[in-house]
Amino acid sequence: MAQKLQTPLALFGLLMVALFTGSKAGVISVYWGQNGNEGSLADTCATGNYGIVNIAFLVTFGNGQTPQMNLAGHCDPSTNGCTGLSNDIRACQNQGIKVMLSLGGGAGSYFLSSAEDARSVANYLWNNFLGGQSSSRPLGDAVLDGIDFDIEGGTTQHWDELARALSAFSQQKKVYLTAAPQCPFPDAWLKGALDTGLFDYVWVQFYNNQPCQYSGNADNLKSYWNQWNTIQAGQIFLGLPAAPEAAGSGYIPPDVLNSDVLPAIKSSSKYGGVMLWSRNYDKGYSAAIKSNV
């Protein structure tokens, strides 16, 4: 019998079935900036392992404080010593990698005192790191892709207003919003902001949190993962330490992640990939999991 020729429409249908059958491919997001020995931002992107890099951290802002960055041993923003990072940022973006500025961290001095304060901080971020104009851009003239909320202190108030004010600038140039809540659900600091539904990527910290992290089995992790997938957000990422010494608890060996955890969570409609803390500790972890993410 003569072989039936496939019409273009039928071929398209087969392609669509192939695309939507099985697990989705995700990307790896990583934090860079908190250890001067972790290599340059350009080198980080050149590994080819990451799809998103978070520059950490803007540690002081809000309530009338002069904003301050801390980039450990990489460069000194207070003396205008980090403007050269613009070339690295562009090198990353030219490879299709998104580069974010991360706000907060575990040891900053930051909080928002009012809705007006939140709008003021948003204006500062737009003009100094995003698509706006300022004579004192700490990272030079490169335009970052967005802002990451790694809020672990201060108060729980007005982060929603900051998210809305930043999102409003997307009318001029898309501002990606990302967040790094702790895995207990909902997150105490960021619930209000996440409830806006404005976040593109949410990487949940499944470490240093006993109730929901991996601890010999992934049962609790999977249960909390399913709760996080109910929020209104673009994609949800599994946040992990890149080495045992990167966190107090919650490390998952790469072979266990590949064989047990990722297959269980990749079927989620909002699955986006894996976030790693941090570039400094990633001595082969991202390479070991990349093909399975």
TrEMBL record:
It is found in: Secreted. The keyword Transmembrane helix does not apply. It comes from the Eukaryota. The keyword Ubl conjugation does not apply. One of its GO terms (cellular component) is extracellular region. It catalyses: Random endo-hydrolysis of N-acetyl-beta-D-glucosaminide (1->4)-beta-linkages in chitin and chitodextrins. Belongs to the glycosyl hydrolase 18 family. Chitinase class II subfamily. This is chitinase. It comes from Juglans regia.
